[in-house]
Write a structure and sequence with these properties.
single chain; alpha/beta
């Protein structure tokens, strides 16, 4: 951990921004770099049954532009002298987070949990929970 970067996945939510402050703290403490990762999921209407009013390529361009703007906003509000890298990927959030952690050999993953319980937790798999179970690196989950 002492020489490896901290990976902080974000969905740009308030909870994810809260987790980012912990990631910055950890990176500052160990004097390592910070990697901020956003994963663009496949849209539910991707098969296009005539419901989506824009083409898949237009939707892809829109989501990439949106993610890039949000990432710039995150960087603008970061108050750190750390080396910060941003990554935007497409695919399964869990898969992309785990792949990034392994490929870059990060020392720790710091991420948010949205705290779903009961039926909400049953219906929506927790990305944070799945990453914590499957990751080969330490994971700090922030509420």
């Amino acid at each position: 951990m002492r020489t490896r970067q901290v990976l902080c996945p974000t969905d740009f939510s308030e909870t994810a921004n809260h987790a980012l402050s912990y990631a910055v703290e950890m990176a500052n403490f160990y004097k390592v770099g910070l990697r901020i990762l956003h994963v663009i999921s496949k849209p539910y209407g991707e098969t296009n049954y005539g419901i989506v009013s824009i083409t898949p390529s237009e939707l892809e361009k829109y989501t990439e532009t949106y993610a890039a703007e949000k990432m710039r906003d995150v960087l603008a509000h970061l108050q750190t002298h750390l080396r910060v890298e941003t990554i935007i990927r497409r695919g399964s959030a869990v898969g992309q987070i785990l792949e990034e952690a392994e490929n870059v050999d990060v020392g720790m993953i710091v991420m948010a949990s949205h705290g779903l319980t009961g039926v909400g937790h049953f219906l929506h798999a927790s990305v944070a929970e799945e990453v914590a179970i499957k990751a080969k690196k330490p994971v700090l989950v922030v509420k």
